[in-house]
Structure formats: structure tokens, C-alpha cells
Amino acid sequence: MPDSQPSSKRLVLVTGDTGVGKTTVVERVVALARGRGYVCAGLSSPAHIVDGRKIGIEAVNLCSGERRLLARVATEEAGVQVGRYTFDPAVIAWADRVLAAALAARPDLLVVDEIGPLELERGGGLASVLEPLAAGCVPRALVVVRTRLLDTLQARLQGCPVGVFTVAVETRESTPGLVVDWLFEATEHRRDGIEKC
User: Fold this and answer.
1) Closest to 14 measured CA to CA, from 6, 5, 23
2) How far is residue 184's CA from residue 89's CA, in Å, rounded to a whole number?
3) First CA to last CA across the chain, in angstroms?
4) CATH fold of the domain at 10-45+61-66+105-191
5) pLDDT tens string 40-92
6) Cα separations in angstroms, 114 against 3, 87, 196
7) Which pTM does this prediction carry?
8) What is the pLDDT of residues 181-191, one digit of tens each?
9) Domain map (residue ranges) of the chain
10) What's residue 75's pLDDT?
């Protein structure tokens, strides 16, 4: 259960099993936050589906809407192999630049979908965002991480209150609203002229 103490900086970790809908939750969180007038930036990583089959992972710049194919189901092509996927180094570099620009802009909510084995086990991918996140360089952040890497990521991201939200089939619909409420609770109370202690 997330920490209920309001703070000026907040970090949400969205976790759950593969294929449960973590990225869908992220996309709904962004839509809800924008609906409340907050600026969101960063990356989402939806599945790349062709003929009803997931054949890769896209990277989407949340500011511009630009999409690039980040990874394909493992092929003979050159790239970074992680599990069953081949990651495109050029797209990883682009995604890293998108996150760097988002960090510099200090949005109301920074989204990083996702931090995985490439970052936590190899120090590659989007690992450069971990230090600024731990230092609380943005007011609010949402990071997607698979369940088996949750403890490892939590150990790396200490420094601001952390809320962990586990996505499951039964909670997928309710989770986005809960995440937005927790992320912006202190800000909403300040907007209403009521500062919680």
C-alpha cells in the first residue's frame, strides 16, 4: 500500500506480471493527469502488434507523440539481446535523449516505461535516468518495473516517498485513478487552500 504522507516529491512504481496491462495503466494515468491540467513528459512503451501478435515494443515520446520501434522479438539483426527481444541501440539512444529533455523541462509528471533488466542488470538502456530519479530532480515520477525487479529498483531509488501499485486483471481499471490521486494529493490540497501536515 502506498505511503499516505503528503510530500513535495513523489515517485510511483507500477509493477505487475508481464502482459497484465502496466503500459495501459500508464497511458490512462497520463490522460487523467493531463485532464487535471498537469504537464506529463517521458516515455511509454506499448506493445507493437501485427496481425494480433506482439512482435516488438515501441517507445513513444509523451510530449510529441513520436513513436519508434524499440525492440523486436529476437531476430538475426544486430542489436542488444535481452530475453526474447533485440533492442535497437539507435532507438535506445533516442529514448535516452527524450528522457534527458523531459528531466531538463521538469514536468509535473515524468514517466519512464520501463526500467528492466537492461538497466538494472547491465547498466544500459535508460539507466542514466536512475540517478536523477533517486535525487528527486522532478516533482513527480512514474516508473514501470516488472515484479521480479521491484526490490532491486526500490534499492536504487531512495530519496523521496515511494508508492508501489501492483497491476492485476482485477485492479487494472481502478489503478490509474488511485495513482493520480496519490501522486498529486498534496498539490491538490494546496490548490484548494488546505495544506495537510
Assistant:
1) 23
2) 35
3) 20
4) Rossmann fold (3.40.50)
5) 999 999 999 999 888 899 999 999 999 999 999 876 666 777 778 889 999 99
6) 22, 13, 32
7) 0.86
8) 999 985 543 33
9) 10-45+61-66+105-191
10) 67
